[in-house]
Amino acid sequence: MTDRSDGGPAIHIAWECLSNFIRDDAFAARLVLRNDGDAPIAPGWTLCFNTCRKILAETVSAGYAIAHVNGDLFALSMPGGDAWMPGQTHTLDYEALHWAISITDAPLGFYLLPGQGGAAVDLGDPVIAPFARPEQRQRNRGDAVPTADAAWRFAQNAALSTLPEDEVGRITPRPRAAHFTGGQYRLGRDAAVVHGAGLDNEVRFLRALLADLPPGEGVVTLAIGPVTEAGDEAYSLDIDAQHVALTGASAHGVFNGLQSLAQLVSPNGVLPLGAVQDAPRYAYRGMMLDVARHFSSVDTVLRLLDCMAAYKLNRFHFHLTDDEGWRLEIDALPELTTIGAQRGVAYPGRSCLPPSFGSGAAVDASSGSGFYTADEFVTILRHAKARHIDVIPEFNLPGHARAAVEAMRVRHARLVAAGDLAGADEYLLSDPADTSAYESVQLWHDNVMCIALPSVDRFIDTVVTAVAALYREAEVPLTVLHTGGDEVPGGAWVGSPVCQASMRAHGWTDVRELRDDFQGRCRAILARHGIAFAGWEETALTPRADGVLAPDRRQAGRDFHVYVWNNGGLPHERDCATELAAAGFDVVLANATSLYFDFAHAKHPLEPGYYWAGFVGTRDAFDLAPSAGITGLQGQLWGENVCSRARLEYLAMPRLLGLAERAWSPQDTNPDWNEFANRLGRRELPRLDRHGWHYRLPPPGARVENGMLQANTAFPGLGLHYTVDGADPDTTSPRYVDPVSVHGVAIVKLASIDTHGRVSRIVTLHLESP
Questions:
Q1: Number of domains composing the chain
Q2: Which stretches make up the Chitobiase/beta-hexosaminidases N-terminal domain (predicted)?
Q3: Which of 88, 194, 355, 524 has CA atoms 20 to 30 A from the CA of 268?
Q4: Are 154 and 292 within 8 A, CB to CB?
């Protein structure tokens, strides 16, 4: 046993789901804690951690207590306990709501608060016991969704086949029309670029593309002019034996054509002769990134924008604020980032938000903390502009607003202490006398703005003014601002004297009227800045007399942009997107069941991601049949589990390609998944490899019948390797091509491996006892 190198105690933490079958909507779990240090831990210690499953305090083993702090933060203690001696183990069981079937359901981000004072000590994540038994792998006894094991994957992939080369599309997303004759044209890095006016940005992109080719010549002409297909983003690309000619209906159309050219040209500069005529199905083709729950660096955001542009996505919904973080510097309100952008354990002289999603005690040591300076945000805007991507910022309110509420509470306290009472109230977002009792979906008790305060309007206007100034500096128009508006918990405002006084003054009897008034004020603030209002679907719905939510036609208009996340795919749901579009709203379909890329790809204990609306694979996005009348589609990457760039890329890709295909390509009543899967495995994944993307490599499907190993992959063409000696597969291991005899073999291991040698999750088949 030994203490850690930093002098803190060494504590081994293990967690196990015991059973999801104990009773309705609850599961049993066990924590095992062992002092692996050389010294005792003084009595009075508290062990804090985050968990997405609400623990039922009354079920905790005798002698221990687990209290809900706020949000997903819980605190374990041992009231009246003695010192925790070296080698001593504490084992405690508890129950929590819902179920636990994967690593995402386990608690994480443990840290110790010493009983005698002193700094918090980060302990990291627990060792998670395997989910092996049915009561650990099923959400309840009626859970009919099978675990995505090797046999399940083999069955899912069984209908796929490797297509002839000429039957696999060359461009993703699939263009409206493309024909290739079989000849070749070669481009080199010294190719001549002939272009018309207004295409300087596109010429820079083309020259960067040419710079990666071998030495050589050629001719590429770029022009804005008439094309076959309709719309500003349309283009025509012609490749003959003398040159490449690209014409776009606008600069954006030319840029889209360049993305297709980039996919057609091989690393050695060879292009197929032929022609492409193309235009998008939807004007809005978007991707949302949540950087509030976990912060993503500027470089990570720019990299995502590059990938979006490569697949012709043109809207970047930037979720900048939520309960757990405010990520944009606002000069007039520094507390938004000095407090609202920092997560950890506060100490004298340092205030911050509490740890969430496993971010830990140290303020500066995880992706729980961070923000974009004004200059960095301008850099992001300019980078997006050069790629013809509109950035739609989101500042979530009135709910999902705890980071802002807490930051302004700290500001208020600071100015009150300085004797500036008027200044303290200027941007206050909460009513100090509010006794409202509520709990948000994410378990917060104080995350809603007090929308009857005039200071809330002043706060919003100040933020919008600052953001608009950054857009002007970047020379980018700010036309739409997303205000969130979702998941305001019931019970908010009912205990606020300020809100109740406002309701009496206006003759309102329902807090919904208070909220409708607030939303109208938000729209008016944005309108004064020439900005359209956007929000999640809750902002456009209102209860009918029978209590059922329906489109609020009083607010309908093309300047009201609605993002529908809860649309079909779940029992008893209506086609909300179609109803809102028919009512006159501008609707973007962003439904959870197909386009939530933070969800687990499949039901497997080791697959990261939430799954409250199901499991979402690349095919779910590809197979989406969009509602009638919508403006477009958007993928969502919520940030609760995006703790690193590698995790972001794993969750986003290759699902983003399924989104791009469905948002761009012509409507298809019978989309060809086999062709698309071949296109990914043989063209797009190797291309992503060249750019170093850590996309999800699907584990192989496999089974053994009559002593023969049969294996397959979700994307034909992807490398599949195996071993029969117990070693983990790598690029030197045999590549699976045809069934293999495994008579007498005890263990088979398989993995998908990309062109750079990166290995998927390893699949292990135990065939017989050794």
A1: 4
A2: 9-152
A3: 194
A4: no
- Residue identified by tokens 């043109």 is 314
Q: Quote the domain boundaries for residue 708.
A: 701-766
Looking at 447-537, which runs of residues are DSSP E strands?
Answer: 480-484, 532-536
The DSSP call for residue 354 is P
CATH of the domain at 75: 2.60.40.290
Query: Can you tell me the distance from the alpha carbon of 634 to that of 249, in angstroms, rounded to the nearest whole number?
Result: 24
SS3 336: helix
The structure tokens listed for 276 are: 């492409």
Same-domain status, 138 and 184: no
Task: Write the CB contacts of 690 (distance below 8 Å, at least 6 apart in sequence).
Answer: 267, 755
- Three-state SS for 237-259 is EEECCCCEEEEECCHHHHHHHHH
Query: pLDDT by residue (tens digit) across 481-507?
Result: 999 999 999 999 999 999 999 999 999
Q: Which helix (H) or strand (E) holds 16?
A: strand 11-23
Q: How far is residue 492's CA from residue 427's CA, in Å, rounded to a whole number? A: 20
Residue 558 pLDDT class (50, 70, 90 cuts)? confident
Q: Which residue has the higher pLDDT, 6 or 521?
A: 521
269: left (phi over 0), alpha (psi -120 to 50) or beta: left
User: Does 590 map to a domain?
Assistant: yes
pTM of the model: 0.97
pLDDT tens, position by position, 640-689: 999 999 999 999 999 999 999 999 999 887 889 999 999 999 999 999 99
Which DSSP string do the residues of 134-193 spell out, in sequence order?
A: HHHHSSSTT--PPP--HHHHHHHHTT--PPPGGGS-SSSSPPSEEEEEEEEEE--TT-EE
How many other C-beta atoms are found inside a 10 Å radius of the C-beta of residue 124? 13
Task: Report whether 403 contacts 353 (CB < 8 A).
Answer: yes
Rounded Cα distance between 638 and 441, Å, is 15
CA 228/CA 420 separation, integer angstroms: 66
Residues marked active site are found at 487
Query: If you write DSSP's letter for every residue of 377-445 in order, what string do you get?
Result: HHHHHHHHHHTT-EEEEEEEESSS-HHHHHHHHHHHHHHHHTT-HHHHHTT--S-TT-------TT--S
The three-state secondary structure class of 529 is coil
DSSP states along 265-301:
S-TT-EEEEEEEEE--S-SEEEEEEE-SSS---HHHH
Are 541 and 406 within one domain? yes
Assess contact for 384 and 316: CB atoms under 8 A.
yes
- Integer Cα distance of 505 and 503 in angstroms: 5
Report the C-alpha gap between 281 and 284 in whole angstroms: 9
Do 184 and 137 fall into the same domain? no
Taking the CB of residue 171, how many other CB atoms lie within 10 A of it?
21
What tokens does 674 get?
Answer: 């086999």
Instruction: Give CA–CA dist 316/309, Å, rounded.
Output: 10
Distance of alpha carbon 138 from alpha carbon 143, whole angstroms: 6
Cα within 13 Å of Cα(649), Cβ side: 21
pLDDT band at 5 (very low <50, low <70, confident <90, very high): low
